[in-house]
Write the structure tokens for this entry.
Amino acid sequence: MGEIILRPSDWLTAGLVVAIILLFIRTIILSGKLKRLRRSYLQFMGQSGVEDMEKVVISINERLTSQEQEISRLQQSVDSMGQMLKMKKGNVSIHRYNAFGERGNDLSFSLAIVNDQEDGMVLSGLHSREQTFIYAKPVKQGESPYPLTQEEKQAINQALRPE
């Protein structure tokens, strides 16, 4: 049995046989990985083939462009609604007081209806024993062409900065 591998060519042959066996095992392993990769590829592509890949990418790109345009349009719409909302007269406050300082309760009032830019109006009702007078004053940027009383100014401030 000791005579089987004596020559250098026998050593070379034995090394080549081992290398072939290792390469064969490596080929089997790579074949399995290739089958799994092909299965994943077919599942991903949906049996559509490589020719359709370009159509898929173009379709995705077109949808993305369409969505970006829609997002831009929606952003413009939201911005314009935000500007309109700032102009709405949504800040309301009422300040009650005793206008004449005599007997009685706080039956007089100033009602402010303004937006964030302090544009709107103030209604004031002055109650006396015999009658009630109601006055309306326009307000532009917190000022009016008619003199504003302290109570009216306080109602405007309360409408803009609720407590």
The first helix runs from residue 8 to 45.
